[in-house]
Amino acid sequence: LRFSCRLWGGLVQPGGSLGLSCAVSRSIFSINALNWYRQAPGNERELVAAITRSGTTRYADSVKGRFTISRDNAKNTVYLQMNSLKPEDTAVYYCNAFIIPSGDYWGEGTQVTVSS
User: Percent of the chain, pLDDT > 70?
Assistant: First the structure.
């Protein structure tokens, strides 16, 4: 399983918006969950947002109301729209696919920087 992830936008100021997309090398229809994680320097990797096969979404409390995860099965792509960005959102963001029973598959990280 391979991922091709892209950041839509560059360095952004607080309050701005960015988008992440991650194209998967196979059909995502049967993937149990597609997730976005992030890891800031000195911190553990944390789950930011998740979307299941049925479209159920879950968010970290710190991003609720600001971030939106979505999936396009026809394009085998998962998205993360990030609005009202804060400096504490600065981190390396990772796309993840959880497949039963295989386990976790990870994309390469993408740096997101929010700075004035």
Answer: 100
